[in-house]
């Protein structure tokens, strides 16, 4: 009997792994992703009036929900066109990072710099809140946008010159200035520009509220409105904006929540 049960469990586990193979990794923490199976009567899912991505994988539909970095651990409820969905957000041991900056303006900006940052933040917020259609038949595969070893820089609580700032909302990939940065998946370039903190930046809309961001570039090689395929050159690594060294800041936003880019990569 035990062997039959073990065989059945292995079979079910194998099927589940196969079904989930094309989806992001499920990690139910602040800054993580919840991949939620949906019943047939649920057609739309929302969180705080923000539409959530839904995708078909094999014979099952899933909501792929980005959990905001500011979310406290505990129960969290999503709204649908039918019954609400409740998930449990787990604690996660994000590290702390202490950074020394020579340019104090990146720690305590003056009034003009604060006004510039506010304009830029609003411009980016409008993009993150957008929800455009997609023609996916499966969830898009993502690849790393530049070469380099990276650690778990996402979510770190940061202190600049001893002053606490917001947690790090992207993944830093150390790389030499001038190294190629490519599109990790197909999409539309929805914004490019030079920002106070982010430096030279490119944003790509992959559809259904899934947006990628690439910061601190030394050169931008695409323009707003341009379609890109996976692997297309979008820019070169640099250290523009608030950066202590040459690297790529790769950010991912899902339903207007900044989430860990590593969750989109195959293990």
UniProtKB/TrEMBL annotation:
The UniProt record lists the Peptidase family M23 N-terminal domain at 31-82
Location of the M23ase beta-sheet core domain: 167-261
Q: Which GO terms describe its molecular function?
A: metalloendopeptidase activity
Q: Tell me its EC number(s), please.
A: 3.4.24.-
Q: Which domain of life is it from?
A: Bacteria
What keywords are annotated for this sequence in UniProt? Hydrolase, Signal
Q: Does the keyword Hydrolase apply?
A: yes
Signal peptide annotation: 1-21
InterPro entries according to UniProt? Cell_wall_metabolism_enzyme (IPR050570), Dup_hybrid_motif (IPR011055), M23ase_b-sheet_dom (IPR016047), Peptidase_M23_N (IPR040487)
Q: Can the keyword Signal be found in this entry's annotation?
A: yes
Q: What is this protein called?
A: Murein DD-endopeptidase MepM
Organism annotation: Acinetobacter stercoris
List the lineage, top down.
Answer: Bacteria, Pseudomonadati, Pseudomonadota, Gammaproteobacteria, Moraxellales
GN (gene name): mepM_2
